[in-house]
Amino acid sequence: MTVKTRFAPSPTGYLHIGGVRTALFSWAFARHHQGEFLLRIEDTDLARSTAESVKVIMDGIDWVGLNYDNAGNVVYQTQRFDRYKEVVAELLESGHAYYCYCSKEELEAMREKAEREGTATYDRRWRPEAGKTLPDIPADVQPVVRFKTPLTGDTSWTDLVKGEISFPNEALDDLIIARADGSPTYNFCVVVDDFDMGVTHVIRGDDHVNNTPKQINILKAMGADVPAYGHLPMILNEQGKKISKRSGDTVAITDFGAMGILPEAMLNYLARLGWAHGDDEFFTMEQFVEWFDLKDVSPSPSRMDMKKLLWINGEHIKITPNDTLADMIRHRLEAKGITETAAPALTDVIALVKDRAQDLNALAEECVYFYQKQVPAEADVAKHWDDDAADRMLRFAGKLESLNEWTTENIHSLFKPFCDEEGIKMGKLGMPLRLAVCGTAKTPSVDAVLALIGKDEVLKRIRS
Ligand code: GLU
């Protein structure tokens, strides 16, 4: 049996970080089993679904790099109405569904009664049973189609994450599968799609646990094999509450991109939200796929930890090739008015500073002073720029000028003799030199920084 999983987002806004984690686990499960990972767009809610949001979701999935196997053939529910109608007709034909002619008022009365008595909402008035006389069909009511849920027994499954789950059938309603206008309802579409797509493992958020018994019963009535289900617990914010934009949480996957998170780091971090492989924190997606098993997913919710995300991001920055990082930060530098001139090459700058940055914005920030001297912070000036500093820097510029070959080593070789000559400690050279050349005290080794910036530019900056 080929394992088939799917990610089935509803395109009603942005791509939520929880959605990406669901997609990631579905994807990893399929890849681990050499199976297929399929994408389905659940866009039947015409009032809330937009083409824009479909694009945002697809761009988000592409950005993190979760490749789905039906790229040329993504399933859109809105393109499948004929098929849903066909299955409704089949279920009516086989006696697993029936027309219900209840009016709004009747349903309202039932709801009130059910609330009072704590029973299933619909009293099954139109459900055909042997020996039962149904009411007369009213002339002015367009019927809905209801599914004939079994009256006794339980609907149970062994959830791949949560273990045994069971619902008594008597608590489940005869749910509506087609509305009066003929349009199919949510749970019904999901079932028909999962069946037609041959989905073997449904991996989704645990907000769908209550839908699962309904879906299982419909699948059984269709004579379909019931897939395995694994329900993933929620991701909570750092305060342990539901993640929400309104509470100021970063939610949309694009916002993490704007924060300078690398796609691989995002996936690495999300993989660890609710899943563990020993103490491993930092790993590649190849390793994740190799290790991934739903039995290692925790059944309880996990919490966002931005500090950890940034740490993992920093680790990924370290192992990302410099030219890839250059492509990722070029537009960030351009936004600061910096266009890469011939020297220094951005990749060389990145090689020197990449260990210092935990996100791409910080990385861009670390590159700025190689191209443009910054205005030093007052606190740095107060701390490192004494009365003699300006003259001392000019004296040191003279030494720099005398170098024939402009290399880190040669620049370095000037430091000790100069300090001895001046009777100062290295701090009195290094820090003012950073301020004079870079405009910031926070740089890597100053000899390497000067070497990259270039002789003419360094002398110009000190002497200006
Ligand atoms: N469209 C549903 C959602 O976005 C997912 C349904 C499913 O995975 O079965 O929550």
From TrEMBL:
Gene3D superfamilies: 1.10.10.350, HUPs. Residues 325-463 form the Aminoacyl-tRNA synthetase class I anticodon-binding domain. It catalyses: tRNA(Glu) + L-glutamate + ATP = L-glutamyl-tRNA(Glu) + AMP + diphosphate. Keywords: Aminoacyl-tRNA synthetase, ATP-binding, Cytoplasm, Ligase, Nucleotide-binding, Protein biosynthesis. A motif ('HIGH' region) lies at residues 9-19. PANTHER family: GLUTAMATE--TRNA LIGASE, GLUTAMATE--TRNA LIGASE, MITOCHONDRIAL-RELATED. This is Glutamate--tRNA ligase.
